[in-house]
């Protein structure tokens, strides 16, 4: 099963990356839940419930969590707190909660066009879910656009350079237009048990 998590101000139905994953992995169960990107408590409950419900119904499924931007932040949290042992695929991930502070205020959902407000209180709450280090047994693949103009790619690069399979692209910005090019790598990552423990 693949759980694909969209980024900030998006939805599971309108995220381009989630659409491509659904299309390219028709042989897999692909869940693309929409979660509230401006309420961390609501997001954590919705995503945890979605994952644990699937695990309860399909306890023998291999699970891969793909997280895009803010979805990468939540993918790491889910992998750390879940009863399963999923693989992680992170695309231009948000690593530190404080990187969302610049979104405080009025925003518009890119997919629906609906306005919403990220309050300072809710932005601060995201830090309650920040993961310092991933489980060393978790297989992780990271895709980074090194010219990302929204999230500093060096943060994820420094964190994962010796503990994950990091794929770097010189250009592309935050939107990661190489998603279709990355599909074979994602498929290969899903079919391997290799992992990169800290210190190796």
Shape: globular
In total, the number of strands is: 8
Which stretches of 5+ consecutive residues score pLDDT under 50? Answer: 194-200
CATH class: Alpha Beta
> What's the architecture, going by CATH?
3-Layer(aba) Sandwich
Strand content: 15-25%
Class per helix and strand makeup: alpha/beta
- Largest sheet, strands/sense/barrel: 6 strands, parallel
Number of domains: 1
What's the end-to-end separation, in Å? 28 Å
Mean pLDDT: 94
What is the overall number of helices?
Answer: 6
Oligomer: single chain
Spatial extent as radius of gyration:
16 Å
CATH H-level superfamily title: Alpha/Beta hydrolase fold, catalytic domain
Order of helices and strands: EHEHEHEEEHEHEH
The CATH topology is: Rossmann fold
How would you sum up this structure in a few lines?
With 200 residues, this protein is α/β, with parallel strands linked by helices.
Overview of the molecule:
This protein is of the alpha/beta class and 200 residues long. It has one domain (2-190): Rossmann fold (3-Layer(aba) Sandwich). Helix content is 32%, strand content 18%. It has six helices and eight strands. It has helices at 16-24, 40-57, 70-81, 120-125, 153-160, 179-190; strands at 2-5, 30-31, 64-68, 87-91, 105-108, 115-118, 140-145, 165-169. The strands form two sheets. Strands 2-1-3-4-7-8 form a six-stranded parallel beta sheet, with helices on both faces. It has a two-stranded antiparallel sheet with strand order 5-6. The longest helix is centred in the first third of the chain and has 18 residues, at 40-57. Mean pLDDT is 94; it is low at 194-200.
